[in-house]
Amino acid sequence: MPVNAGMKEQPALLKWSGGVYTLQGPCFIGRRSDNDIPISNVQASRRHAVLMNLNDDWWINDLGSRNGVIVNGLRISCARRLKNGDEIRIANQRLFFSNSAQSAPHHSSIMGKTTELAPQTMSDAPLSSAACELLIVTEQGEILEGDKAAHWFFGKSLERAPGAPHYFLPPTVRQWLQQLADENENIFPPLEMEQEGHRIVLSLARCRDNRFYLLGRVESLQVSIERLQSLGLTEREAEVMHWVCEGKNNPEIAQILDVTLHTVNRHNEHIFRKLAVDNRHKAIKTVKERLGV
């Protein structure tokens, strides 16, 4: 955590029946004993959820668990920004997020700004429209956990020798991984790859016992915030319209942006008026036509 004028900021915490966990980097929760917070309950998945810091906020992602992640009584369907005092329920465990440094609600653009340079730290990275997926691989790029996610990211570019127990990451990713292994650094730039109209971003979450924990996400290149603003939408309207184009319904958008459903409905009304349409399907079609998508 940053230090200012000799005074250290209070770290964010997770409080639960097992004690207090100080959040300093990505925090994995699940049934396996090698998670940061292990939950010994059959209703918890082996890798159930991850908390991570993005844009100076803490977010929680469901890692494809069977029984889901409940925040303040509601099951999340996408990444959720956490606020001081939020209750997280995973299987039979209740965890409470505490961030004494967090003041009034912070409404920044969760999509960030698209640049040609890779961000230098995970906390600078924009949140994607898809929840993060976890890959656990060896230094040689052998995929130990996360085959389903790897196929979603890389498809047929994955390699597997006849009779081999695991797939291997594509050569470009293996080369990046080898560079991470060779460099004795604490900060690693993520790997960005463009594929079929999307940007795949891989970030190193941690390295433990010669295993590399990689968080992957997909960002749309087609309907970015900046391009939507070129149609005369405000930044917040552009954020709402981006998620409409990504297929999210209004309650989901409200959860993502941490605003009320009424606010999302009001933004949609303004968007429809500016685009001269009367529903979201026509809005999506108009946006894609104007942007040449």
Helix count equals 7
Question: Would you tell me the structural class of the helices and strands?
Answer: alpha+beta
Binned, the helix content reads 10-25%
Strand content: 25-35%
- Sheet bearing the most strands, described? 6 strands, antiparallel
Query: What spatial order of strands do you see in the largest sheet?
Result: 4-3-13-12-9-10
Oligomerization category of the chains in this entry: single chain
Please give the number of β-strands.
Answer: 18
Distance between the termini: 41 Å
The radius of gyration is 20 Å
What's the mean pLDDT score?
82
* Helix/strand order: EEEEEEEEEEEEEEEHHEEEHHHHH
Overall, the morphology is: globular
Could you name the ranges where pLDDT drops below 50 across 5 or more consecutive residues?
Answer: 1-7, 104-130
List keywords for this structure.
disordered N terminus, alpha+beta, 18 strands
In short:
This protein has 293 residues and is an alpha+beta fold. It is built from seven helices and 18 strands.
Topology:
Blueprint: E1 3-4, E2 7-8, E3 12-16, E4 19-23, E5 27-30, E6 37-38, E7 49-54, E8 57-62, E9 70-71, E10 74-75, E11 80-81, E12 87-90, E13 93-98, E14 133-138, E15 143-145, H1 147-154, H2 171-182, E16 191-195, E17 198-208, E18 211-220, H3 225-229, H4 235-245, H5 250-257, H6 261-275, H7 280-291
Parallel strand pairs: 5-6
Antiparallel strand pairs: 1-2, 3-4, 3-13, 5-7, 7-8, 8-11, 9-10, 9-12, 12-13, 14-15, 14-18, 16-17, 17-18
Helix pairs in contact: 4-6, 5-6, 6-7
Question: Can you characterise this structure?
Answer:
This protein has 293 residues and is of the alpha+beta class. The protein is built from 7 helices and 18 strands. The chain has a 6-stranded antiparallel β-sheet with strand order 4-3-13-12-9-10, with no helix packed on it. It has a 5-stranded mixed β-sheet with strand order 6-5-7-8-11. A hairpin with a 2-residue loop joins strand 12 and strand 13. Helix 4 packs across helix 6 and helix 6 packs across helix 7. The longest helix is centred in the last third of the chain and has 15 residues. It is globular. The N terminus is likely disordered.
